[in-house]
Design goal:
single chain; alpha+beta; 148 residues; minor pseudopilin epsh fold; rod-shaped
Amino acid sequence: MQKGITIIETLLVLAVISLLVASATVFYYSFLADYQLGTDTTEILGVLRLAQSKAMAEEGGLKFGVHFSSHQYILFAGDSYALRNADYDEIYDTSSAVTLSWAFGGTNDVIFEKLIGTPNNAGTVTLTNVDNKFNTTSVNAAGKIELQ
């Protein structure tokens, strides 16, 4: 009787380890996509609330808003993004695993009124990750900003 392990036993162990590594990799990437979605959602909520707060405080005597594009959003000061004071621009990028979409009355901007903080348009911002999970943030006509 010989002692030791056969080549078949070795291959079987390697196959089991390969399956475990593959499963862990899939789980890791799914976890990472969910984490990035949550992080980006929290950041957009914060930026929208910051723009509203700055408008209500009349910082620089200006209105403040947020301009949205495909993987970026910009906090700006002014009556519109086109006429903004670029000295106040704060640029934020979403992670590469997250897609940004918005609906603010056909415009890429939401602008908050001085002192009262109401938006020029009510609407939503939706972030979707590579697993098609999504979070939607809404801004209502009264200025309430919340995660739906």
